[in-house]
Amino acid sequence: MTNRSTYHHGDLRQAVLAAALDVIAAEGPGALSLRDLARRAGVSHAAPAHHFKDRTGLLTAVAAEGYDLLAGALAGAPELRERGVRYVRFAVEHPAHFQVMFQPELLRADDPDLRAAKERASAELRAGVAGVADLDGVPDAREAGIAAWSLAHGFATLLLTRNVTDALGGRDPEEYFRSLTGLLFTKQG
Asked: Domain 56-184's class?
């Protein structure tokens, strides 16, 4: 018996996701059309709906995949600064995922795959903050986590939108981010 998801196409779900990521990276999520993605994948216009139901379902799948990739990227980082570097690296290596993940109005918030993937990524972010909350002057882990996330996410967003290109002056973005964290989080005496 033939698996329906691979009939007529090697892996239609992955092919449509890959095509969607290309479109998002080039033109943004607003340019997505299931009909266009079906054409790109060489299948009938109704075929993507079998896997994603609609455009929102597709964007939710992109976000869930992104959160899983982010969790994997953060896993095992030795300390908070390096988790931030990995967060920035993830954004640079997966700009389409990054763009969709943080636009909740595009997604089905109650999707179980999305919720589970977000929780895995959140757990990795929290793990990086656990030791910081014990330091003098750090009010609690939640506030430290929001501060760290704000810095990494803000820098990644500025980097992807090319708003800090001139400021980098050709420096490696990861090393630049490490410098930023050093400026902001050195212990004042």
From this structure: mainly alpha
The DSSP symbol for 137 reads: T
Whether 56-184 and 1-52 are alike in CATH topology: the answer is no
**Could you tell me the two tokens for 151?**
């810095």
Q: What are the domain boundaries of the chain?
A: 1-52, 56-184
Note the pLDDT of residue 132.
Answer: 67
| 3-state per-residue secondary structure call for 75-121 | CCCCCHHHHHHHHHHHHHHCHHHHHHHCCHHHCCCCCHHHHHHHHHH
pLDDT digits (tens, 9 = 90+) for 47-91: 888 889 999 999 999 999 999 999 999 998 988 899 999 999 999
Summarised one tens digit per residue, pLDDT across range 101-118 is 999 999 999 999 999 999
Question: Is the distance from CB of 69 to CB of 75 less than 8 angstroms?
Answer: no
Question: What CATH number labels 1-52?
Answer: 1.10.10
Cα–Cα distances in angstroms (integers) from residue 137 to residues 26, 144, 150, 152, 189, in the given order? 43, 10, 18, 20, 12
Name the 3-class secondary structure at 58.
helix
List Cα–Cα distances, 62 to 8, 101, 105, in angstroms: 23, 8, 14
What's the rounded Cα separation, in Å, for the pair 170 and 58?
36
